[in-house]
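User: Sequence in, structure out. Go.
Assistant: Echoing your sequence, followed by the structure tokens.
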Amino acid sequence: MKKVGSRSLKPSTSSSNRYSPYPKPPPKTSASPSPSASSSNRTPSPTDGFDGGPVRTRPQRAAATGGPRPSNADLFKQSQAAGLQDTHAARPANMEALRTEKDGPNDNLNMLAHYGSQAASKKGIFASGPLDPRGLGPQQVQTAVPDRDKGEHTQVFGKMTGGETSSTKYQQKLGTAEPRTDYEILHGMGHGEGGKKTQSPNNLASASHGANTAMIPPDKAISGNPDVIVDTKFAMRPGTQRAEYVDQRFFHKDFPDQPFFQQRIDGDRPKVTQSEYKQLKEQVAPLSDAELLRGAAHLMNFRKKAGSSGGDT
């Protein structure tokens, strides 16, 4: 299977809609201070664990601040500022609302224009090469991994680029950034699948926000299944940290020469829309069933052997 990518919807204010996990703020009274008056809970730490620049804190929820519930857009901006978006490691939280944008009437035309431009400039999946391969090689998915250091991949990437820790600024300086496109530090194998070894320079590359998002549903589907071997590769522009495209590939451990899932993702892919993300999740949903996946892999191999011996396939 091959595939060639944040604005978020504002939360509804209707009380008849779905249950909200956020506690309602207490009603305002003359004795109750306004949310803006309670500023001590919102004061960030004076230190920054990433690069010593402007203070960056984790997104603040209403339960922590005592104020009104933040919008999804606010949460995304705070996550972006803290560097929490630069990985496609599998996570228990639903990142869909933070990483996708609303569908629009011109989505198909915009995508067509994007790939027309890519073909003309020989970028992304149309790059003619020569390109340098990068990846960890075949790696078995771990059943569980410890929490990652969320700043480690940024520090490693900074060493790879000679000091630039921003993937977007790196591509802009390189002259390869598409207009109005955000870039991120991608993991070939997600940290949620492989743990500490995935923070290696061989597993990191610069590609678009949309490319990173497109990798998430398959990664989440196979997370924790040790029957799966991940062999995702970047096609790198020589002498740079830019991935022209990503070949995301999964194998069953009993049949390491035959991928049961693969997709090629444009390194400049535009942001993923909500309907695209939903489609991606539906396509890879069967991969999350370990028993079904094992049976399908064996059946696929059986049919392959039957075909090679002249049997009816």
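User: And one key feature?
Assistant: The CA atoms of residues 8 and 73 lie 6 Å apart.
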